[in-house]
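HUMAN: Mind sharing a backbone?

ASSISTANT:
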Amino acid sequence: MTPAHIIYGDGVLKLLDQTKLPGSVEYVELRDWKSVADAISRMVVRGAPAIGITGAYGLALAVRAAAGANDFRSSLDIAAAGLSAARPTAVNLAWAVGNVREQVVSHAASGTTASELIVLAERAAKAIHDDDIDRCQRIGDLGASLLLRGKDVMTHCNTGSLATGGYGTALGIIRSAWRDSTVRRVLATETRPFLQGSRLTAWELLSDDIPHTIITDSMAAHFMKTGSVGAVVVGADRIACNGDTANKIGTYGLAVLARAHGIPFIVAAPLSTFDAKIASGAQIPIEHRDPREVTSFAGVAVAPAASPAANPAFDVTPAEYITAIVTERGVLKPPFESSIEGVLSEKRESAGSRS
């Protein structure tokens, strides 16, 4: 089993350092929101739901540091903005940080004591963490029914326990399908340039004794052509109202290849990944990271020093290439404008009934 990778207690956030996997299992200990934001930016923790949970705990640390101070509100706003900016494409981060902030601010206005605000913030972050694990389990079980028995499934990047609160989104579907004896083998793309597939997904699959084969990103079309691939299952960092989906760079290419070979292309994501404020993928901000992640790995150069490199961390897959989007509330099918609006309306109504 994959070890716990996000642990919070007594004002200390411990994160399993995913940059060190699979070579070693090491944890970093963080005690303030700035170090949390830095860890998110450096991809010590990654995966949209996981960085959302981490950001929520980061804001709890900010509340612990500033509660009772005269500038509490401004300090909280600075921390929330700094955490949300650490990875701009994944909407879960801003959503989780905003969720904790809103609860703290509303209670601070009613005269809640500093110690009570700290407890409130930590409980709010823990609730987001626990809720994500439950959502992933439901996504996994719902999505497993979409996979063809006896076929390989291809996945990209890492969408398992390490990328979420636990269990995983796309990898959660694969886990549930393996439990149900549906999946024959997992084809895990290496996912250049950070190798989340070969380093992290393979590590999780190995831990769960799930048969798998690592392939380079450029091998995807070859394996699809063999007829062994029954589905491509990926996660998401942000989904627009029309179903356009931002995910790890290379996802769009897999979707085009899947369409060309008549293979279902399935996206798995909790409702927190949907951005009700944007109509299409054209409005999704794309994070561009240090080009040195492309020209070197683990400090070793893999390209001429004078050669320039591009490093967009995400791409956007148009909704027309997506067969289904699996959420904790059900499987969404085209036309996505209406199916997405339906689940988002239910989410708003249920939130309103609890307030």
Notes: The mean pLDDT is 95. Residues 139-354 form a domain with the Rossmann fold fold (CATH 3.40.50.10470). The radius of gyration is 20 Å.
